[in-house]
Amino acid sequence: MVNSRFRAVEEAFAKEAVVAEPPAPATSDYYGCNVFNRKNMRKYLSSEIRQKVYESIEKGVTLERDVAEQVAVGMKRWAQDMGATHYTHWFQPLTGGTAEKHDSFADPYGKGESIEVFSGKILCQQESDASSFPNGGLRNTFEARGYTAWDPSSPAFVMGDRLCIPTVFISYTREALDYKTPLLKSEVAIADAVTDVLKYFGIENDRVFSYLGWEQEYFLVDSSLYAERPDLIMAERTLIGHSSARNQQLEDHYFGSIPARVLEFMKDLEFECYKLGIPVKTRHNEVAPNQFEIAPVYEQANIAIDHNLLLMSLMRTVADKHGFRVLLHEKPFAGVNGSGKHCNWSIGTESGIGLLSPGKTDLENLRFLTFMANVLKAVYDNNALLKASILTASNAHRLGANEAPPAIISSFLGTQVTEAFNELLSSRDMVKLKGKVGYSLGIPQIPGLFMDNTDRNRTSPFAFTGNRFELRAVGSSANCSSAVCVLNTITAYQLKRYKENVDRRVANGTPVMKALLDETRETYRACQKICFDGNGYSEEWKAEAAKRGLDCETSPPLAYDVLASPRTIEVYKDTGVMTEVELKARSEIDWEIYSKKIEIEARVLADLTANHILPVATRYQSVLLDNVSKMKEIFDGEEYSVVAAGEIQIIKDIAMHISKARNLADGMEADVDEICEIEEERAKAIAFHDRVVPYMEKVRVHVDALEMIVDDQMWPLPKYRELLFIR
Ligand code: ADP
Ligand code: MG
To answer: Which helix (H) or strand (E) holds 712?
Structure first.
């Protein structure tokens, strides 16, 4: 009796166990499982070797060969246990994205036998014949060797069947061929410069880092529709396409509910991110239909950038599984908001002091204003350089298009910080407080609530947002290293000048606190022109900015001139981030990439026009012609001219658009062919910008007009209304 009752209970449990969904694993169970992090190192490396690795990560101490050898053994065992069969040095070439060359752990030898190899030497350095990567003349063809070298500060990870080792990529003559090398150097430069200034404020032995929290915007389109758009496939943006009747007028997409199919993609993406230790936190719809954003919690800049690049490749693979294509281009659709990658940047110490956060005491607030003033001065002096670091052929579509900051760098501070600076400007010497040790610095207390209280200004390219600056001008497809490296480098350079000046004042007998106060005041006074809290989208601002002497160049090829200007060379040389040779190579590469992008777009557009659009338009025209001539058989003279008039006009319109589109496309192709013959990269890029870009806009006008006329059934490409609304 008893037994049978128990049996019934057992059966009920068994039934439930089948019915109940297994609980979803907690994120903490799998977070970072694909990363060779401390937890995994504990299982595969001895404590002695681990200590050496930690030292290398934390203090930048170079790992000795025999230690690297042991790390390689542990790393390989871990990777194989994770199912990896190959390894790759993972690096960031100047073409954008990341590059990998896969080698198998298996090393076949002799007759049908194989051993598995992965040594310290392989881990630390690889030679790669990388002559197909842009190098701006740094590698002569007879010396085409490049090297990838391990960056232990960014952990190795397993992706798919391969162990990926983050590396820098340099030439045989040690010049940087990637984004990571100068970034790492800029981190050293800013850490050193900040550490020196922090000593005045009594802070020592606290490591300094630059931090980055990016916000990645992107579009999703259905894979099957994408496959029918050669322009999306080849140029990553629609080169033609009439706007749909409804796009973002209703502004109902922003923070609206996320479509179910997209949500599944996002969940899957987050799962993959967590496995790789990418701390993604926020997801939401963006302004445009089919536009979304994903953002992590901020990290040390180098790690944050590696994570952003990893995310971008993960997005592509995960989207594929869900029948989507992810578009990271800054402007995939005309007339609809483009995508950016806001870069939230700050500097701080290991113990948690945010140097761009206001404090509670006078001294902390002087420290805050000091770092703020130096960042502002750095950005003021190098506003053209900062802009050049974010200006690309694709991002140029977005800047200044009433959706993103204009192609002019300025900074928004908000009322409270502006007031604090104004107080500083009008303050006189320090006053010794009666009976108390200490000084009143004449700086108003900045309320604690301040952080959440900064007024927002969405139109500012470099906005202070309470404890960081948000650089909003970066493009969605960019490797944001390029901008972050500039911010680190120019700030480091400026802080070195600040320290020299303070030291000079002190040497002349000024008390340290007064020297700091005076120098901070002068630093801010010298760069006030960079501050602008008004509407950055307005025409008045463009005029005002020009008056203030801010760089207003909108042509990317001309903007790149600043990369090798005497000032930039001095800043990079002084901070040890890049040499003149490297800077010159970089401007060459920027021109080269710009030209290639425009050339591809122009050729795809010419091809689409000639082979896809015009034949269809002609076919529709003949349908109408046929109809009109048949009408003649039914209707007599006067009646005919009434009923056929509309169609005859359409036939004429089609004929006009066809002939104009053809002539323009032909003219454009002829120009492209001619420009391709230009040898000098700068002149070539300028010609592409000045001659080809305007052509592309004109061709589009006629093709888009034809889209509105030609029978929808005949139109050969998916239209905006199909591409932009996921069902
Ligand atoms: P928004 O309101 O601009 O959309 P989000 O909350 O989406 O802001 O993103 C803000 C980003 O800024 C996040 O990645 C966040 O971690 C990052 N962030 C916050 N504080 C700092 C800081 N001190 N330094 C750098 N990044 C920061
Ligand atoms: Mg933001």
So the answer is: none
